[in-house]
Records
---
Amino acid sequence: MRAIIYVFSGTGNTMRIASLYKEEFEKSGVITTLYPVHSDMSDLPDPEGYDYVGFAYPIHAFNAPEIMLSLAKAIKAVPHKEYFILKSSGEPLKVNNVSSLRLVSLLKRKGFTLKSEYHYVMPYNMIFRHTDREAMRMWETAKALSAVEAREVLAGAMHKLPGVFFGRFIAWLLRIEQVAMRVNGRFFRVDKQKCILCRKCENSCPEGNIRIDENGKFTFGKNCLMCARCSFHCPTDAFKIGILNSWRVNGAYPLDNPMDETAPEPKHHHGWYCKRAYARYFAEAQDKVEKAGKGQ
Ligand SMILES: Cc1cc2nc3c(=O)[nH]c(=O)nc-3n(C[C@H](O)[C@H](O)[C@H](O)COP(=O)(O)O)c2cc1C
């Protein structure tokens, strides 16, 4: 058996989730390809030959990033192909459930049928930085939950996320973000005092939107997706992301390092943010993992 997951990931969270699925699928003998989605759609793998097909993306302004919509337009039509969606977001808000509506309708035109959809809360890459401990809790939760849910996908289980009142309208309205971000991307700037010209931003931009000439002059094109890869991974935090600069989060979370559980939690002013929604997310995830462990 073979599986393919078309993954777009700005700063790595969604790729981490997709990798967990790959690991779990391969334990069951399903050879899994993770296809990193980028602007050149000419080499898109044909989904036809795969037994399991998935699409994975980070939620941007309660929608799928525009590059996933381009993918849905470019992918080969395959009648009656069932697929699953994986998505990651920084908030556990139910309104995030509307994010796949447009993607699902574009894929439907190509003959695809949504079988299951799963949502993982991961450390925020925009607006504010979670503490390392919060980030680790999200990651540990995603690891435990995805093991259960990947097995559901293999078993062909249906899993739909609940709808949201006025959801279609909210998602449609917020698609304005995709236009706004392309404009905002033209206002990116680089702090020349900090920049070490490592070209990490230029080389990793999924849209090839950043150019640095031989004199070290930066040019920003009009295709920014606002995935934040350039600023998040900048080793010297030299990137300024236009009008959203005060929301910039820089530097990967130390998710692969063991945490010192005895270290005091640093105080930060976002402890109140979506507190009940996070508590509900963790409780529901724990409940599902425990039930799966008891074979319920
Ligand atoms: C431009 C932008 C918009 C975002 N909008 C949302 C949002 O509407 N809801 C949310 O919960 N998280 C939002 N986030 C946070 C990301 O969805 C979250 O950090 C995600 O895990 C990033 O995944 P990635 O590392 O694969 O890019 C947004 C992030 C960015 C950069």
Note: The pocket of flavin mononucleotide is lined by residues 9-14, 58-62, 88-91, 96, 122, 124-126, 226-228 (CB under 6 Å).
---
Amino acid sequence: MAYDVSIVECRHYREQEVEHALREAIEKVDGFSVIRPGMRVALKVNLVRGQKPEVASTVHPEVVCALVRLIKERGALPIIGDSPGGIFSAPYVKAVYDITGMRRAEAFGGLLNDDYSVIQVHAPCAVKAKDFPCTGWLKNADVIIDVCKLKTHGMMGMSNAVKNFFGVIPGTSKPEFHYRFPKADDFADMLVDLYEYFSPVLCVCDAVIGMEGNGPTMGDPREIGCVLASSNGHAMDLVCADLIGMKPDGIPTLRSAIGRRLVSGNLSELKLYGHVDDFRVRDFRTVTAQSNVFFHILGDGVIGRTADFFAGRIFTPFPKLDADECVGCGKCASVCPAKVIAMKNGKPKIDRNRCIHCFCCQEFCPKGAMKVGKGLLLRLLG
Ligand code: SF4
Ligand code: SF4
């Protein structure tokens, strides 16, 4: 019997331990059956930024190396790639491969993607992203495997299987997407569109050490102690949300997937191999996703818009500067898609009335000085 999602203990990034756990996890969801000799297998790895493996913002190289060995065993060719935030070009991405430890995979026969082409895609079945630019290398693969990392995320609450597909958008186009889809639910619909368009045959999650707090790049590493596999990224996200104590309705991509009936919102309806209870981290430091508690019921007139304005202030998290940690580099101002950050006296000043709450400034701040501030109501509730 193939399970919907498997969860297997893996406490350390030791070569044999990781390979053993991944083999078991993938076998239990029948994930190897889709890989045939001679296939080009794209490993869409979360390499959000050039950070060392111990930072825990990217998939650990031991996980990628183990996957490469397992795919090579089946006579297929694993190709590793991603489009991190920044220019999708050889010098930039190769530096990310070096820093994140991906080069190690070459020793086991893995190829690091060196196709930096960008293509235009038309997706007629999409809800939001019917036309978008994407990295060409994925289109040349026979199958795609989604290799994600379990992390908190300022805008989306959680980054895992579905959020990983934002990496198909070339780095410099990402801010434009935040601007096109400023509301969390629209952005999440777009992410679900991307995931569904590419339809990875298998999702593998590195939850040996996840990231809590100020994720997805500047949080703190946190041991979770497992790896997961599934052929359905939405189902995997549902399980992972539970692992870190988040509810599906607090994660916009899961709300979208459940609304489209891509997964049931009820964990008990999934066939699970392994026990979530063995790995759940009860005090995992989560972040609240951008809220969409708007009072559209009051209409689009002055009353409705006024109510929306106050609801946004009360419920919605916002970027918040820790001036002591800020070194005044201006990176946040340069990545802000809404252009609402001005550098004043060497520190960023945000026009909150025009902020679209995308948290690019938080994601790309090299010092972790930009935090996720809680809306008024959440502050009052502690
Ligand atoms: S990116 Fe971070 S360190 Fe640089 S100016 Fe902005 S908040 Fe300060
Ligand atoms: S200030 Fe930060 S959160 Fe607001 S729009 Fe700019 S990058 Fe996004």
Note: The longest strand covers residues 143-153.
